[in-house]
Write a structure and sequence with these properties.
By secondary structure, the protein is mainly alpha-helical. It is 67% helix and 4% strand. It is built from ten helices and three strands; from the N terminus they run αβααββααααααα. Helix 2 packs across helix 3, helix 4 packs parallel to helix 9 and helix 9 runs antiparallel to helix 10. It is globular and about 55 Å long. The two termini are 16 Å apart.
Length: 231
């Protein structure tokens, strides 16, 4: 995916402010490069080069890479160092959706019963912020949408009240890896419409409707990203 002409990912020292939480700024900068393929899948990552580019010491860069390693976006190899994770293959993609279709509709049905009113309001607020990102057609906003999409599904899993379901889904970091496959500008608008259907079912406290809305969303999501694997 060519991104050299995308100014949103020309991150340099001047683009980074000096906030209290510099580590988050460094993390976001490297995350954006990974999601945009400025750092290509499988590509080596030089801590020293990133530190110079971002105008920071190596410490926040290493901390950011450790966070990204925990999310599966970065791989650290003994005696070699860091590299960007490879893209998921078609088999992994199919298995991922098999698992999601088994677990997430169940989680949504339980959330319709167990999720607190405050948590549903939090979900609604998150959905609104994602609609604002939809209006921004940049790849930077697309990367932010991936993070928010993951949080949306995480809140529902948490709201199910089943700690094991929540743990399994959280550890997959599904949304970061899916949105990293390729830049799909329609994915944001379509996903937002499907999220609204899920929220409406949760608001009505209708387990069957919540499970059906989640299943529909996952099937649509799978169809959107399947095109990456087309011959």
């Amino acid at each position: 995916m060519p991104v050299s002409d995308d100014k949103n990912f020309r991150t340099n020292a001047s683009s980074l402010r000096r906030p209290t939480r510099l580590g988050d700024e460094v993390y976001n900068a490297i995350y954006s490069q990974l999601m945009s393929h400025k750092i290509a899948p499988g590509g080596r990552i030089s801590v020293d080069s990133l530190a110079r580019e971002l105008g920071v010491s190596q410490t926040p860069v290493r901390e950011a890479l450790s966070r990204l390693e925990a999310q599966g976006l970065v791989v650290k190899t003994h005696l070699i160092g860091y590299s960007a994770a490879e893209q998921m293959d078609k088999q992994r993609f199919e298995q991922l959706y098999e698992l999601r279709l088994l677990v997430e509709p169940f989680a949504a049905a339980r959330a319709a019963v167990h999720m607190s009113d405050d948590s549903i309001k939090e979900l609604e607020s998150l959905a609104q912020s994602m609609k604002l990102l939809e209006r921004n057609n940049s790849r930077a906003a697309y990367g932010q949408f991936a993070q928010s999409d993951g949080e949306f599904h995480n809140l529902i899993a948490l709201g199910s009240g089943n700690e094991l379901v929540h743990a399994v889904l959280s550890n997959l970091h599904t949304h970061l890896h899916l949105f990293r496959l390729f830049y799909h500008s329609r994915a944001t608008a379509d996903a937002n419409n499907e999220h609204d259907q899920i929220i409406e079912a949760l608001r009505r406290r209708d387990p069957d409707a919540a499970a059906a809305a989640m299943s529909h969303h996952l099937e649509c999501s799978k169809a959107r990203f399947t095109s990456y694997f087309s011959d």
